[in-house]
Design a protein that fits this description.
It is a single chain. The protein folds into 2 domains: 1-72; 89-302 and 363-369 and 400-427 and 442-525, Alpha-Beta Barrel (TIM Barrel), CATH 3.20.20.80. The protein is built from 17 helices and 15 strands. The protein has helices spanning 3-20, 33-67, 76-82, 104-108, 117-124, 126-129, 143-152, 163-166, 175-190, 216-231, 244-254, 265-289, 314-339, 404-412, 444-462, 505-519, 522-525, and strands at residues 97-101, 156-160, 194-200, 237-242, 294-300, 305-306, 341-346, 350-355, 364-369, 374-375, 385-386, 419-424, 467-472, 492-494, 501-503. The strands form 4 sheets. It has an 8-stranded parallel β-barrel with strand order 1-2-3-4-5-9-12-13, surrounded by 6 helices. Strands 6-10-11 form a 3-stranded mixed β-sheet, with helices on one face. Strands 7-8 form a two-stranded antiparallel ribbon. Strand 7 (341-346) and strand 8 (350-355) form a beta hairpin. Helix 11 (244-254) runs antiparallel to helix 12 (265-289) and helix 11 (244-254) packs across helix 13 (314-339). The relative contact order is 0.12. The model has no long low-confidence stretch (mean pLDDT 91).
Length: 526
């Protein structure tokens, strides 16, 4: 171990103990008053010594890194993420099979799903959102999706089941609406398109709440019922829950998603526990009926990075804030997937843990990646989420950071299961040149981003990573949750006023890619 690693370990050790002095009692809602008093007294006694040690070791460690760079060698993918070496105009075909993904609520709108958490959201915010206009309406017009998948030559499609449709009341299933999804799966299969189904994609029935552990068994029953019905139509890939950490973070920490709570890290951790236990039970019930069904869930890897690299004041503050934001969005989940043990510690906010008793059962994992946010704190104020000089950034503060996918693949490959890239996307504001018409540019920024994503995937395959498919988000514009029509990720433009669908320039790029792929299938390119 070199001097850099030694000081880094010492700094992390002191920070860890300082953190312990600021935590509430573990699982505080169940703790007795006596335990709380004893714990906080001990923490108060320990606080100042560790504060002094941290104040010395943390900046000293940062200074030593500048003088004596660590000799620890990164893996090839992590090294590529830190030092990307892009090659322009070299990827002429996708390195893996391509698909598209969407979510039922987003393409059908709140009028089709009024008795859901998001249906209520749009009803309650009707004045500020104003007229939503038309929707792609896949429920009534599946041909709008299938025809365009055929046009592109894409043979994989990920879509979600709306539980409010198939189970309008707890335990009461709608045979008619289940049959609707059966017919859609059948149409996909008839067109040579492989379905992947997501059972929970943010939208939930108004009788359901992830913070209530009593809902776990009901979810498992629903999961088994639906997957069994679609199994007969060739369904073999299931995503139980979409982005659990996003549900917890946006709904209980940021307050942008239902139930709109802010700063409730404890509540977020509780939701994550219920979701993971629900996945486990759904996995067990599905496997009882169909052992060959592939069951996983999707995880959006979001890792906050610090903007200031060597600032004695802001660097340690940014690193600490970024650590906790990353932990709730990714770090705690990754550790849980690797060990079966979950722990979320946030000073003054959360000290939550649970042990599943085993590793979470997974046949595959869905990796979703958009960006690694860059956190900037300063006296001058401004946006706290920023970008490096020269980086493209979207209206939603997503910076163009495809190299981050390399280290994301490296991290999830530690789970030892196949990886599907279940969402990769960029909204059109990356292209903005004419602020009055973001569709006016030629999509060069998005095409460049997707080309670099292909380069990362090619690099991962060369390094032996089991990355199988890439699903773009998304085929055509749809409602982006609390942003409604403000964000548009579609390869096809959907005009919400007229309902007209038109191809964006990225479509021609992908058509050429898919034509080249058809001439040389993935198996031949491996």
């Amino acid at each position: 171990m070199d001097i850099t690693d030694s000081f880094d370990r010492l700094a992390n050790w002191s920070v860890g103990h300082l953190e312990d002095c600021l935590l509430p009692v573990e699982n505080t809602q169940q703790a007795s008053t006596a335990k709380k008093v004893a714990t906080y007294a001990l923490q108060a006694f320990s606080f100042f010594p560790f504060l002094l040690l941290t104040a010395i070791t943390y900046p000293l460690s940062a200074a030593i890194v500048r003088v004596f760079p660590s000799k620890k060698k990164d893996t090839p993918l992590v090294d590529f993420a830190k030092h990307p070496r892009w090659q322009d105009d070299t990827i002429q075909r996708p390195p893996i099979d391509i698909g598209f993904a969407n979510a039922d609520f987003q393409v059908n709108g709140p009028k089709e799903h009024p008795k859901t958490n998001w249906g209520k959201h749009y009803s309650d915010h009707a004045k500020e959102i104003q007229d939503l206009g038309k929707y792609p309406d896949m429920w009534n017009h599946p041909e709008r999706v299938i025809d365009r998948l055929n046009e592109l030559g894409v043979k994989s499609f990920r879509f979600s089941i709306s539980r409010d449709k198939v189970e309008p009341k707890p335990g009461k299933f709608s045979t008619t609406n289940i049959q609707h999804y059966i017919k859609f799966c059948r149409k996909l299969q008839e067109n040579g398109i492989e379905p992947m189904v997501t059972l929970d994609h943010f939208s939930t029935p108004d009788y359901f709440d992830w913070s209530n552990k009593d809902n776990i068994e009901g979810f498992a029953t629903y999961a088994a019922r639906i997957t069994s019905a679609l199994y007969k139509e060739g369904l073999r890939k299931v995503v139980t829950i979409n982005e659990p950490c996003v549900v917890a973070f946006q709904g209980h920490v940021m307050g942008d998603f239902p139930p709109y709570k802010k700063g409730d890290f404890h509540g977020a951790a509780k939701v994550l526990e219920n979701m993971m236990r629900a996945h486990k039970r759904a996995y067990e019930e599905i496997k009882k009926l169909h052992p060959d069904m592939e069951v996983g869930f999707s995880h959006n890897i979001i890792r906050f990075r610090h903007f200031h690299k060597h600032n004695p004041l802001w660097t340690p503050i940014e690193k600490m804030v970024a650590h906790y934001l990353t932990d709730i969005n990714h770090g705690a989940m990754l550790h849980f997937l690797q060990t079966g043990k979950f722990s979320l510690k946030v000073p003054f906010k959360a000290n939550y843990s649970f042990d599943l008793g085993e590793k979470l059962p997974l046949d595959s994992i869905g990796l979703q990646f958009y960006t690694d946010p860059l956190l900037k704190i300063s006296f001058s104020g401004g946006e706290s989420v920023t970008r490096e000089p020269g980086e493209k950034v979207s209206d939603y503060q997503y910076r163009s950071y495809p190299q981050g996918l390399a280290s994301a693949i490296e991290e999830l490959s530690t789970l030892g299961v196949p990886i599907d890239l279940t969402e990769i996307g960029a909204d059109i504001s990356f292209n903005i040149g004419n602020p009055d018409d973001p569709d006016a540019p030629d999509d060069k920024a998005r095409i460049r981003l997707f080309d670099r994503v292909f380069q990362v995937v090619q690099k991962a395959i060369e390094e032996g990573k089991n990355v199988r498919k890439l699903y773009f988000w998304t085929l055509m514009d749809n409602l982006e949750w609390h942003k409604a029509w403000q964000m548009r990720f579609g390869f096809y433009r959907f005009d919400s006023k007229t309902g007209v669908i038109t191809a964006r320039p990225v479509v021609d790029w992908l058509k050429k890619q898919m034509a080249n792929a058809a001439a040389q299938p993935c198996s031949a390119r491996a």
